[in-house]
C-alpha cells in the first residue's frame, strides 16, 4: 500500500478546495518526495504481450498527468502497468493563460485547455536518462510547439529525441488545445506525417510508434485513419483524446472552453474505439481511454476493442486506490467469463458498442 493511496481519502477534500492546477502541482510534488514504494503484484491471467513488452495487466496512465516525466516510477508504484509521459514539445512552452484546468465535480469530469505547457525535450530526456536502469514501461507522448514552422518536423525531432529512452512513442495529433493540430488526422496530412516518421524509423532502431486520435471523427475520417495507419504499419492507436463536444453536463464549469474528459467522454470514446476496432480488427492493437472510472467501464472498453487501457480523470476523484480496484475487478470478470486471458474478450462486443454515443 503506497503512502499516496493511504493519504488520498484524507487529502482529497483539501486538494479539492484548491484550484485544479494548484492541486495537481501539489500532487506531483508530493509524489516526487514520497518514499519509494514497490508496485503491487498483479493477479495472474491479465498479462498483455504487446510491442515486445510484457504488461502485467492492461491499465496504464494516460498522457497529461506527468507531462515532464517527474513521477513515472511513483505512478508505476500505484499499480499501473505502464505510464505515458508528455505531451512534450521540442522547445519548452508555457501553454495557455491560467485558469485553464477545471474540475466539473458534479460530473466527475475535467475540462482542460492547458495548451501543451511543458519543459521541452531536453528536460524530459534528462529525467528519463536518470531512470534508465529501472524497470517499468514508460511511453513518451510527443507533440508540436504552438509556433512550429514545420509541425511534422517537430514530431520527427520527438521520435529522434526519445528513440533510446521511451518504451514506445505516441504521436499526439488530437489535442484540441493547439490550433490546427487535429488537421494532421486528415488523410493526406496523416500520410505525410507518418511517412516522415517511417523514414526516421527506417534509419535508426526506433521504439513502437502509436498514434492518438480524437473521439469525434466521422465515419469517413475513421476509414481514412484505419486504412492509412494499417498500410503504414504503425504499432497501435490510442482512442481517444478529450472532446470539444459537451454531452449533458450538470456542473457550472461546463461552458469553459477546452477538452472534456472523464465519464461524460465514455460513450463517445468507446463508440469511436468500437468503430475503429470493426475496421482494423486484430491487425492494429487499440488502446482504450476516455471515461474509465471502474472495473465495469474498463471491461467495456476491452469488449469494445481495447487491448490496453489508460485513465486520468477518475484518479482525480477516486484516487490511486482505484487502480487496484479496477485490476482486481478485471481479474474477477475474466474468471467469470471463463477466459484464459483478456485477449479472448478484446472486441467481442464491438458491434454493440459502436452506437453507444448515439444512445
Ligand atoms: C488535465 C489534462 C491534461 C491532458 N494533457 C494531455 C496531453 O498533454 N497529451 C495527450 O495526449 N492527452 C492529454 N490529456 C488527455 C488524456 O490523456 C486522456 O486522453 C483523456 O483525459 C481521456 O481519459 P480520461 O477520461 O480517463 O481522463 C489530458 C487530459 C487532462 C484531463
Radius of gyration: 19 Å
Strand count: 13
Termini separation = 39 Å
Order of helices and strands: HHEEEHEEEHEHEHEHEEHEHEHHH
Principal-axis shape: globular
Helix/strand/pairing category: alpha/beta
Low-pLDDT parts are none
Overall average residue pLDDT: 94
Ligands bound to this protein structure: flavin mononucleotide
Q: Tell me about the largest β-sheet.
A: 8 strands, parallel, barrel
Strand order of the largest sheet: 3-4-7-8-9-10-12-13
Give a verbal description of the structure.
The chain is of the alpha/beta class and 359 residues long. Helix content is 38%, strand content 16%. The chain is built from 12 helices and 13 strands. Strands 3-4-7-8-9-10-12-13 form an 8-stranded parallel β-barrel, surrounded by 5 helices. Strands 5-6-11 form a 3-stranded antiparallel sheet, with no helix packed on it. A two-stranded antiparallel ribbon has the order 1-2. Strand 8, helix 6 (187-203) and strand 9 form a beta-alpha-beta unit. Helix 7 (219-231) crosses helix 8, helix 8 packs parallel to helix 9 (295-304) and helix 9 packs across helix 11. It is globular and about 50 Å long. The relative contact order is 0.14. The chain binds flavin mononucleotide. Flavin mononucleotide (FMN) binds next to strand 6 and helix 10. Flavin mononucleotide binds at residues 62-64, 67, 87, 101, 110, 112, 114, 141, 172, 175, 212, 241-242, 261-262, 265, 289-292, 311-314.
Amino acid at each position: 500500500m503506497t503512502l499516496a493511496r493511504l493519504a488520498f481519502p484524507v487529502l482529497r477534500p483539501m486538494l479539492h478546495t484548491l484550484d485544479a492546477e494548484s492541486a495537481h502541482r501539489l500532487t506531483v510534488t508530493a509524489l516526487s518526495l514520497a518514499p519509494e514504494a514497490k508496485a503491487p503484484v498483479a493477479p495472474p491471467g491479465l498479462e498483455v504481450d504487446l510491442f515486445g513488452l510484457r504488461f502485467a495487466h492492461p491499465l496504464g496512465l494516460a498522457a497529461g498527468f506527468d507531462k515532464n516525466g517527474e513521477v513515472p516510477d511513483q505512478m508505476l508504484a500505484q499499480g499501473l502497468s505502464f505510464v505515458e509521459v508528455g505531451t512534450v514539445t521540442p522547445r519548452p512552452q508555457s501553454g495557455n493563460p491560467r485558469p485553464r484546468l477545471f474540475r466539473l465535480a458534479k460530473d466527475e469530469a475535467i475540462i482542460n485547455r492547458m495548451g501543451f505547457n511543458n519543459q521541452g525535450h531536453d528536460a524530459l530526456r534528462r529525467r528519463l536518462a536518470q531512470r534508465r536502469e529501472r524497470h517499468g514501461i514508460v511511453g513518451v507522448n510527443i507533440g508540436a510547439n504552438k509556433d512550429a514552422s514545420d509541425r511534422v518536423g517537430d514530431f520527427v525531432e520527438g521520435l529522434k529525441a526519445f528513440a533510446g529512452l521511451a518504451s514506445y512513442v505516441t504521436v499526439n495529433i488530437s489535442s484540441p488545445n493547439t490550433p490546427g493540430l487535429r488537421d494532421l488526422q486528415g488523410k493526406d496530412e496523416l500520410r505525410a506525417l507518418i511517412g516522415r516518421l517511417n523514414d526516421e524509423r527506417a534509419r535508426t532502431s526506433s521504439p513502437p510508434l502509436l498514434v492518438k486520435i480524437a473521439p469525434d471523427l466521422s465515419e469517413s475520417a475513421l476509414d481514412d485513419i484505419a486504412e492509412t495507419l494499417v498500410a503504414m504499419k504503425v504499432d497501435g492507436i490510442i482512442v481517444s483524446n478529450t472532446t470539444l463536444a459537451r454531452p449533458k453536463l450538470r456542473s457550472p464549469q461546463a461552458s469553459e472552453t477546452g477538452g472534456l474528459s472523464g465519464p461524460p467522454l465514455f460513450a463517445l470514446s468507446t463508440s469511436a474505439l468500437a468503430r475503429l476496432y470493426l475496421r482494423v480488427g486484430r491487425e492494429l492493437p487499440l488502446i482504450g481511454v476516455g471515461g474509465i472510472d471502474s472495473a465495469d467501464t474498463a471491461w467495456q472498453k476491452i469488449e469494445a476493442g481495447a487491448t490496453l487501457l489508460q485513465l486520468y480523470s477518475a484518479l482525480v476523484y477516486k484516487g490511486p486506490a482505484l487502480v487496484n480496484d479496477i485490476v482486481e475487478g478485471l481479474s474477477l470478470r475474466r474468471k467469470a467469463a471463463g477466459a484464459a486471458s483478456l485477449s479472448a474478450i478484446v472486441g467481442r462486443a464491438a458491434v454493440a458498442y459502436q452506437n453507444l454515443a448515439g444512445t
